[in-house]
Amino acid sequence: MADRLQTEWAPRILSIVRIVAALIFMAHGTAKLLGFPATEMPTPEFMSLSWIGGMLELVGGALLAIGLFTRPVAFILSGEMAVAYWMFHAPNSVFPLVNHGDAAILYCFLFLYIAFAGGGPWSVDEMLRRKA
């Protein structure tokens, strides 16, 4: 019974985790580029590193939320978070709790997992695959 339940629900939970993580991640992009939700962060200059990060977060988060191009998008976002950690957090301290890089590390490895696991059954990718 437990094996059947796990087998049946594991792919669905993968979809739920992907959607929730993508929506929260996307909020970083909307805050940077659209000022919503309002933060003390200034709007980045066009084509600056922060602006590019915001675009990746906004567009990549939206694509990941709906599950379109899930694997390559998740791989790119995983790389973005690795770069963000090593460029902006790690130089401040070796301890993620101190350098506030724990979210970047979690996103990095969560997106890396999704890049290999796929978007789950509740994704546009899966819908397109079934139609083909």
Automatic annotation (TrEMBL):
The chain crosses the membrane at residues 12-31, 51-70, 104-124. It comes from the Bacteria. It is a multi-pass membrane protein. Keywords: Cell membrane, Membrane, Transmembrane, Transmembrane helix. It is found in: Cell membrane. The keyword Cell membrane applies. It holds the Pfam family DoxX. One of its GO terms (cellular component) is plasma membrane. Belongs to the DoxX family. This is DoxX family protein. It comes from Methyloceanibacter methanicus.
